[in-house]
Amino acid sequence: MSCIDRAFASPEFHLQFPFLSLCRYTRGMSDHCQLLLQTPKVDWGWKPFRILNCWLSHPSFLADFHILWSDSYKEFPGDYRLVKKLGTLGKKLRQWNKSTFGNQNTKLEDIQNSITTIKDISEVRLLSETEKKKA
Questions:
Q1: pLDDT-based confidence at 1, cuts 50/70/90?
Q2: Hey, which bits of 1-135 come out as E strands?
Q3: Which of 3, 16, 68, 71 is the 20 to 30 A CA-CA neighbour of 126?
Q4: Which residues contact 65 (CB under 8 A, 6 or more apart)?
Q5: What DSSP string describes the chain?
Q6: CA distance 26 to 111
Q7: Checking phi first, is residue 92 left (phi over 0); if not, alpha (psi -120 to 50) or beta?
Q8: Does 3 have pLDDT greater than 60?
Q9: Which H or E run contains 99?
Q10: pTM over cut 0.90
Q11: pLDDT in tens, 42-77
């Protein structure tokens, strides 16, 4: 594997931005690695849930979301009800995601590992027809 993916910075840049770091990702579909210049993680506070774009394209998402939202914490007053609803909604959305799409992190990791393995093999020898179909 060649290491041509690099970034350069002057000493002045390091003095100006001492908190930045460079992160290298796996190669993925390219023969180059993605490089990401990043800052230290910032705690933005409580996040009740995240939303994935694939949810919005799923045919039953809006109806399911409406049911999940309507069923949550009607008995609590005012702002506290919103906080409780968001917390409960996050748990229910995680369950919905897992039952609808399965464990996406595991699927993605498996695909990335397969791609890396095939690329590593292709650097050593020619791929068989079966391996080419996987790629």
A1: very low
A2: 21-24, 35-38
A3: 3
A4: 93
A5: ----------HHHHHH-TT-EEEE---TTSSS--EEEEPPP-----------HHHHHSTTHHHHHHHHHHTS--SS-HHHHHHHHHHHHHHHHHHHHHHHH--HHHHHHHHHHHHHHHHHHHHHSPPPHHHHHH-
A6: 12
A7: alpha
A8: no
A9: helix 78-101
A10: no
A11: 777 777 667 888 888 999 999 988 888 887 666 767
**Buried (b) or exposed (e) across 120-131, using 16+ Cβ within 10 A?**
eeeeeeeeeeee
Residue 60's alpha-carbon distances to 76, 91, 131, in angstroms, are 28, 18, 37
DSSP 8-state class, residue 49: -
**What was the pLDDT predicted at 59?**
93
Characterise 73 by phi-psi region: left (phi > 0), alpha (psi -120 to 50), beta (else). Answer: left
Place of tokens 């409580």: 46
Mean pLDDT of 126-131: 83
Structure tokens at 8: 């350069």
